Amino acid sequence: MERTLIADTIEKVGETVLVKGWVQTRRDHGKIVFLDVRDRWGIVQVVATDEIAGKINSEWVVEITGLVKKRPENLVNPNLATGTVEIEAKSIKVLAESETPPFPLDTEGLDIDEELRLKYRYLDLRRPRMKQNLLLRNKVVQKIRNYLLAKDFVEVETPILTKATPEGARDFLVPARLQPGNFYALPQSPQQYKQLLMVAGLERYFQIARCFRDEDPRADRAYGEFTQLDVEMSFPTQEEIRSLIENLYVEIVKEVFPDKRISKIPFPVLSYAEAIEKYGTDKPDLRADKKDKNELAFCWVIDFPLFEWKEQEKRWDAMHHPFTAPKADDIDFLYLGNPKEFGKLRADQYDFVLNGFEIGGGSIRITDPKLQSRIFEILGHSPKDIQTKFGHLLQAFKYGVPPHGGIAPGIDRFIMAALSEPTLREVIAFPTSASGRTAVMDAPSIVDKSQLDELGISIKSKRPS
Ligand code: ASP
Questions:
Q1: Which atom of ligand 1 is nearest to the CA of 231?
Q2: 400 CB contacts (<8 Å, ≥6 apart)?
Q3: Are residues 228 and 140 in the same domain?
Q4: What's residue 465's pLDDT?
Q5: pLDDT of residue 166
Q6: CA of residue 153 to ligand 1 center, whole Å
Q7: Which residues of 435-461 are buried (b: 16+ CB within 10 A; e: fewer)?
Q8: Is 256 in the pocket of ligand 1 (CB under 6 A)?
Q9: Pocket of ligand 1, candidates 167, 232, 413: which has the most ligand atoms within 8 Å of its Cβ, to mutate?
Q10: How many structural domains comprise the chain?
Q11: What's residue 215's pLDDT?
Q12: Whose CA is nearest to atom 3 of ligand 1?
């Protein structure tokens, strides 16, 4: 017999069906036992008289054949989508038993110790809120793909084992066994590859990209890895990139979060100076009512400074990243102006902000190798350093590089903000904990000495056992 999904049982009154799933609860009424059985699509009440039913506990996996019956009017459960029916069990088969879960699965779960939730993440994901978050995330990603593919963007995967791309964080390094003493870096973003794809003539690129940054964990910043929608276009104006993304997000909200209301369309555009002056931040929360969970206040912040001064290191650093183009009017100053005044230069950079969170950022890129070298120089790289770290990009730009620009909205961050979840970890299936350990698998962990020997690595400090 073919399996019936539980949500479909309401359509099957009078028929014998086979359902499979987990037992949510068992209630004993003498000889009669009620089992609420759950699959991904719903929950249904099963009435059983079979002796085996009395032994089944919560979270056991079962397969039940039974007759779908209409419930009498007074026994209809209005809280259940299948509340008008129940299944009279004819046979019950236990497919897997379950130990008692270490925490309740039918609550929101936010009051449970997070390390414990992450240790048993596969159970934690059974709670309706977490399941819903994953399903909504899936819809958002699907919508992004459909939208961009319809506009002739090409999805390209770029390497994970690569060279560092500076995005302002520490790199994760991977030792190279075949070249002892050499390391790959995990990409902080596909920035340089997407620019190389523009040199390659792809013109419109996107990727649901995993990025790796060794940052100190914060609620709105995942330690370790996160996902972003990485986009790059050739021959764009800044306005074209912004309106591409703006329309995408308007459609995402309409289709995936129909209960949410966008405060203002088109999204307000503020200059960096205006944002700082009016709101004291470059990521203003423009919601009229900050307690309203259904209000989404998107805005753009533009005209960022090109550089920020790093007092500790006594040098200029890129405000966005070193590939960001200065405003055309400001280019001469980079060669002729007083370096002390570089702080007043502006970049062709735009940040995408939602409810006080920066949910993305992008820029028009530098394509003149001479200007790119000058920027690296200002950031403190020696000519030799520039060649070893970025020579490949400067070389590529000698072969007909189109003007290009892009953006990278964070996927985890948008979903967290849209769902008003307290941390990014609530919208990631297997996140790294606040203390930097991976869910369930509990990495990082020590490795065999033989593995280290093969890599030519010896550990200096004493390792915790
Ligand atoms: N690579 C940048 C980032 O990850 C985004 C961009 O400039 O497209 O923030």
A1: 8
A2: 199
A3: yes
A4: 52
A5: 75
A6: 17
A7: eebbbeeeeeeeeeeeeeeebeeeeee
A8: no
A9: 167
A10: 2
A11: 83
A12: 408
Q: How far is the CA of 62 from the centre of ligand 1 (A)?
A: 48
Residues of the chain whose pLDDT is less than 70?
A: 217-222, 462-465
- Which atom of ligand 1 is least distant from the CA of 188? 4
Q: How far is the CA of 361 from the centre of ligand 1 (A)?
A: 6
Residue whose entry in the numeric block shows the structure tokens 């050499």: 182
Ligand 1 close to Cβ of residue 408 (< 6 A): yes
Which residue has 């892009």 as its token pair? 406
User: Residue 383: inside a domain, yes or no?
Assistant: no
Per-residue DSSP letters for 309-350? Answer: EETTTTEEEESS-TTBPBPGGGHHHHHHS-GGGGGG-BBSEE
Q: What's the pLDDT score for residue 217?
A: 66
| Alpha carbon distance 228, 454 (integer Å) | 34
At 168 the pLDDT is 81
- Is the CB–ligand 1 distance for residue 405 below 6 Å? no
Q: Which two tokens stand for residue 283?
A: 């990521």
* Domain shared by 200 and 89, yes or no: no
What pLDDT is stored for residue 221 in this prediction?
66
Inside any domain, residue 24: yes
